[in-house]
Amino acid sequence: MTEHKPTMPLPETMFCAEQIRIPPELPNILKEFTKAAIRTQPHDVLQWSAAYFSALSKGETLPVKERLEMPLTIEKTEAGLTLGLLKVLHKQLSPKGMVNVAELKEKWKHLCLPEEQLQAILQLDDFGEEVEWMKFLALGCSVLGKSLLSSMKHACEILTKDPEGGAARIPFEMFSFLYSYLASIDGDIPKEEVEVFLHKIKEEADKQSGMVLLRNFLSQASTLF
């Protein structure tokens, strides 16, 4: 009978500082990742981190807010859609025009947003397997805004190419589409009233090279709401 000798543990490998090679790009990657996490404040850091590095490796738009959003109340701790997160989704999905619902769900999950909130938004219209992004954006703004006026304000802030705090201009055609769509979803504003309002907005937009200025919209809206 063969006698088995006890296996001797392998000696621990010793490394000196000169043997450890740190990839030169690693510090900057970790620095940018940390800054992105602080700005975005993901509800689930591990889930968001996986989405972040996956997008980074594929050269896709990162799931990162442009700036830190302060909560409306100190007590608010639950995850939910915010203007900053909706803007992230817009950057990721708007180039497609038509978005597959499965991909939308994936991006939504990457931002650690509750699935039931997404389902509630999708149920506001008769969407199939694909969603027209601008319509979804409008519905997202309506969830945040609670009223047509504030919903359109949010839409202008997301869609404008002006710097933050600027005029928040968007093309009249885009404004008209979003306003008409949300008014139809709301159902409480008569079609004739919508047309009269958009006519007034167009008159102002024609003076601004076809662009709707947020302050002009709010001024006109004060006579309607």
UniProtKB/TrEMBL annotation:
BP terms from Gene Ontology: flagellated sperm motility; sperm capacitation
InterPro entries assigned to the protein according to its UniProt record, in alphabetical order: ROP_DD
Cellular localisation: Cell projection, Cilium, Flagellum
UniProt keyword list: Cell projection, Cilium, Flagellum
Keyword hit for Cell inner membrane: no
Domain of life: Eukaryota
Family affiliation: Belongs to the ropporin family.
Record protein name field: Ropporin-1-like protein
Originating species: Strigops habroptila (Kakapo)
Lineage: Eukaryota, Metazoa, Chordata, Craniata, Vertebrata
